[in-house]
Amino acid sequence: MAYALSEFPYKYNALEPYIKEKTVRELYEIRHKAYVDGLNDIDTNIVEARSKDDSFSIKRLSRERVFYSTGHYLYKLFWENTVPNGRGPATDSIAARIIEDFNTLEAFKKQFSASALAVKGSGFTTLVWNPLFVKLDIIQVEKCHSITNWGVSQWGVIPLLVVDVWPQAGYCLIGAYIDAWWNLVDWDVVNARYQKVIM
């Protein structure tokens, strides 16, 4: 089954003035699309390698598949929790849980932003539910060589809030981008994801 970009959920300029239309187009039409195209190419190549019983290629392609599928999955979540005008600040059970695990909402926000700024290369910063430790945590997914099937991953963590970080913008611009992005977070979506994993 081929993977495809879902229809973009709003107009490209709908996130302005916080994220420029040009940036949104780049993130969706170039970066997200590259993950989808790469995933489709990898799947085609894996089928061919299997038909030739080429275990060396299968091993290499399987690792590459982690990169593309992780990027596609996290971008999908990013677009869902990033919306015009946002839904902030955090409320309901997700806010209570953030306060329990990070002391204050502001402390969480500072830690999350610092984590995003520290991503080396392309990647994401995510607020996750860690069922092993029964708490929220913040993790970086650098270069997407991390966890694809999050629900049954090595840590079992499940992403609740995702922000994309890309190195081309430069450190100073990334800081401004992250600060602006907080105005676009859909906390209703984040809360719904949290409710689903703790039920």
Give a description of the structure.
- It is a single chain.
- With 199 residues, this protein is α+β, with helices and mostly antiparallel strands.
- The protein folds into two domains: 19-81, Fe,Mn superoxide dismutase (SOD) domain (Helix Hairpins), CATH 1.10.287.990; 92-198, Iron/manganese superoxide dismutase, C-terminal domain (minor pseudopilin epsh fold, 3-Layer(bab) Sandwich).
- The chain is built from six helices and three strands.
- The protein has helices at 21-51, 55-81, 92-102, 105-117, 171-181, 187-198, and strands at 123-130, 135-142, 158-165.
- A three-stranded antiparallel sheet has the order 2-1-3.
- A hairpin with a 4-residue loop joins strand 1 (123-130) and strand 2.
- Helix 1 runs antiparallel to helix 2 (55-81) and helix 3 crosses helix 6.
- The longest helix has 31 residues, at 21-51.
- Mean pLDDT is 87; it is low at 147-152.
Strand and helix layout:
Layout: H1 21-51, H2 55-81, H3 92-102, H4 105-117, E1 123-130, E2 135-142, E3 158-165, H5 171-181, H6 187-198
Antiparallel strand pairs: 1-2, 1-3
Oligomer type: single chain
CATH class of the largest domain: Alpha Beta
Shape: globular
Give the rounded overall mean pLDDT. 87
Over the alpha carbons, how many angstroms does the gyration radius reach?
Answer: 17 Å
Count of domain modules: 2
| Alpha-carbon distance between the two ends | 31 Å
Helix count from the secondary structure assignment: 6
SSE pattern: HHHHEEEHH
The CATH superfamily of the largest domain is known as Iron/manganese superoxide dismutase, C-terminal domain
**Which class of secondary structure composition applies to the elements?**
alpha+beta
- Unreliable runs: 147-152
Helix residue percentage: 40-55%
Q: How much of the polypeptide forms β-strand, as a percent range? A: 5-15%
The CATH architecture of the largest domain can be named as 3-Layer(bab) Sandwich
Looking across the biggest beta sheet, what order are the strands in? 2-1-3
